[in-house]
Amino acid sequence: MRLNEVELNERIEKLYKILQSCNLCPRSCGVNRLVSKNGACKTNARPFVSSFGPHLGEESFLVGFSGSGTIFFTNCNLNCVFCQNWEISQLGVGKEINVEDLSKIMLRLQRMGCHNINLVSPTHQVPMIVEALSRAWKEGLKIPIVYNCGGYESIETLRLLDGIVDIYMPDFKYGDDEKAFKYSRVSNYTSIAKSALEEMYRQVGPLRIENKIAVRGVFVRHLVMPNDASSSERVLELIASVSTDIPVNIMAQYYPAYRAREYPELSRRIVREELVKVVNKARSLGLKIVS
């Protein structure tokens, strides 16, 4: 059930207040983003969008017949050296717009027949997104909201999304904090990602699919990397410790993008044996594998 207008306005006010000394994500830069772009995400208090449209490359239960209505937000709260969307996440390719324009994009995607609004890399732009959603709901937006993130999330911010997000789709990138810092420049990734997943699961529960389309719940993506650079088996153990009802998409599409070739262990694609090992581990833990 959606929040009422009073509750939603209170959430928006709280979220914008966070931007005054930003701790919207676990980096807690403390930058006043109402006037500055000097935080780790290099983003102020305006929506910053790279592109949008129906996306057919997502999981089948998001794509359906008409596509997932993706909005790619520019910049990111992570700094992954292997990012496959590095022009957007690291170089800042995109355009600043206003909240009203963002709400119109959401409504346009619904009119195009998309099954959901898929917010890609939304973490650092949550206040503007929620305000845009508030406007769009008043104008008739009805399709589910998907929060497609990197897993490095603040519990306080997630709690302000309770009743707003329908489907959580976090990455769980690493099972080892040293590797997380080496490749994404973030601290305490494993405990933060696990706690975030627990909160997501508390809010929306197991993934629910109706007529082959996801309508609510949480599932996790994990990208298998060469030479076990992501400590994949530990990732799966952490997911299972939250709940074995959380489905996992074990992704095999890694390739050396952005600065990955600077790291010898990341400078090749994975081989079949690496993927099979991770898939077998997921099955042994009782996790459902989706794609």
Under CATH, the topology can be stated as TIM Barrel
CATH architecture: Alpha-Beta Barrel
User: What distance separates the N and C termini?
Assistant: 28 Å
What is the CATH class name? Alpha Beta
Number of strands: 10
Number of helices: 10
Helical content stands at 25-40%
Share of residues in strands: 15-25%
Rounded mean pLDDT is: 97
> What class, by secondary structure content?
alpha/beta
Shape: globular
- As a whole number of angstroms, the C-alpha radius of gyration is 18 Å
Number of domains: 1
Taking pLDDT < 50 over at least 5 consecutive residues as the criterion, the unreliable ranges are none
| Series of H and E elements | HEHEHEHEHEHEHHEEEHEH
Question: How many strands, which pairing sense, and closed or not: the largest β-sheet?
Answer: 8 strands, mixed
Question: What is the H level of CATH, i.e. the homologous superfamily?
Answer: Aldolase class I
Largest sheet strand order: 3-1-2-4-5-6-8-7
